[in-house]
Amino acid sequence: MAKKIRNIILIILFGGGMVWTFYFLFQKSHEPPVVYKTVRLFDTTIIKKTVATGSVIPRREVNMKSQVSGIIEKLYIVAGQQVKQGDVIAKIKIIPNMLNLANAENRINTAQLNYDNAKLEYDRNKALHDQSVISKAEFQVFELRLKSTTEELSAAQNQLQIIKEGASKTSGSSSNTYVKSTITGMVLDVPVKEGGQVIESNTFNEGTTIASVANMSEMIFEGKLDESEVGKVQVGMEIVLTIGAIDKDRFKAKLEYIAPKGITENGAIQFLIRASISKENSAFLRAGYSSNADIILSRKEKAMAIPESVLQFDHEKPFVEVETTNQVFEKRNIKTGLSDGINIEILEGLKKEDKIKQPQLVVEKQG
Asked: Which domains does the chain have, with CATH numbers?
């Protein structure tokens, strides 16, 4: 009895399996075939380029510094103001060094004593010379001594005035206490305030920058290019600048400098490049705008091209699949040219009427 029941169960399971198999095959036979989207050759401009990042800066920017140390008594400019060469931008009030001041005062006291003594001797001997008591040669000694002490006293007084005011009385004005612009341009930055202390620029010290002035009519791009790309570029190449702050405009430029030596940044070797920006665009460029530079390596106008995404490779040889009849494709070897990473030029192997399979895109199923 148990054996009979077991046989019945096996028969039922076998029969169910056969029914499911037939149903699965029936459904499979009615699945719609895959339909692939196709593309054709088209004319386009292909540009091969490399990209450098950097910023827009003035070609000529000069930091204005004081010739004397002291306190800023008056500022005559603000950032954004236009100035001409020779315009006064600040006045410096000198705070004299106490040691130098004491030495200068001591020098005056000594010079004054020498002068008073020489003047006294001169007056006394002049009277004797006038009375012909002493000869002219003897009198000339006292006359020369008076002139010498007079000059020494004047020099000591001038030195004291220079220490106190930055200029001597003989110069007629304290011109070096006024900081003047050395170029014509726009004031980009005034990093100091009235009452602030400044240090003079000399051999041992760069000095305090009072203002930065630049000629904004001549701007350049300055950026860095990776060592893997620098070998592809050369001076004179065309550049298209994209500036983050001005999305709608593109700026033409020309590569004019490639650094002969690279610098290490974040573990990679970078090379400094500069490009002159064309003045064709009237948009105002502010110093420091961040920018990307597309350096045009090569260009092909009216190139016959296809999307690079449809390209396939067989042992590094490129090919595409071309439709022969409805959704039936054959392999076609091709010869390619210039590529911009999106489209690629076709030199041989395809005609304009060919329909090329996009193998990775399933766009619809036939019902």
From this structure: 34-46+301-365 (2.40.420.20), 50-58+216-299 (2.40.30.170), 66-96+173-214 (2.40.50.100), 98-167 (1.10.287)
